[in-house]
Design brief:
This protein is mainly α. Helices cover 72% and strands 0% of the residues. α2 crosses α3 and α3 crosses α4. It is elongated and about 60 Å long. It starts with a helix and ends with a helix.
């Protein structure tokens, strides 16, 4: 009777309310899930206000597994930001879309596709105060901006930007980032309107810069010559 009772106990369904079995995932898939959960949290709150337990709970796993894959919260934070940065850069790879201003419009469209589809990752990448902008975290954000600057100069067929053009383009990139964050917060302007406004903003900024630098003046002429409104 004792052995029979044991067999019945093994065959009996799990008691109601018992924790469900954890899904078996590959190492890469589990890491992706943890980083996605972390980005959601880091996009909503400052990194100081997010604990490893918060991430583990959001991902439906244990804090031990978070430490196993990442070593700690800071390592997870850096890995999550690197993931978001890589996804954004992949979206912005230059494509042959004809004239430079057409390429600019296409790049803005893909940028806001990322903003809309990966709101938490975009916000986590750009939000936070000076404390989040030093060391490796600052390098991740600055690296994205440097690559965006190179992308813009290649788009404009410029080998080496002078100081006026460099300052103009970096200022415009900051405007695009701010517009993305503001749109996510309010969503009270149509996306296509923001994209068009930012493209016109670029031309306006180049117009001002052209008064101070012959390189920008010639660049602006080339852009206007190749653009049909």
């Amino acid at each position: 009777m004792g052995s029979t009772s044991g067999a019945i106990g093994r065959d009996r369904p799990a008691a109601q309310g018992a924790r469900p079995a954890r899904r078996r995932l590959s190492v890469d898939r589990r890491r992706e899930e943890l980083m996605a959960a972390a980005l959601e949290l880091f996009g909503e709150r400052d990194v100081e206000d997010v604990s490893v337990d918060d991430v583990a709970s959001a991902a439906g796993t244990s804090r031990a597994l978070v430490y196993h894959y990442f070593g700690g919260k800071q390592e997870l934070y850096v890995a999550a930001l690197k993931s978001a940065a890589a996804q954004l850069e992949a979206r912005l790879q230059r494509r042959d879309e004809g004239r430079p201003l057409d390429e600019l419009a296409g790049g803005l469209r893909r940028y806001f596709d990322f903003v809309e589809e990966h709101a938490a990752g975009f916000t986590a990448l750009l939000r936070g105060g000076p404390a989040n902008r030093s060391g490796e975290v600052g390098e991740i954000v600055d690296g994205v901006r440097r690559r965006l600057l190179r992308l813009m100069t290649r788009l404009m067929r410029v080998d080496e930007p002078g100081p006026v053009l460099r300052i103009t383009l970096r200022s415009w990139i900051a405007s695009v980032e701010t517009a993305g964050l503001d749109w996510l917060e309010h969503r009270d302007v149509e996306r296509h309107a923001i994209e068009r406004m930012l493209a016109e903003h670029m031309m306006a900024m180049l117009g001002v810069a052209a008064k101070h630098d012959p390189q920008v003046e010639q660049l602006l002429k080339n852009l206007v010559r190749g653009h049909t409104p």
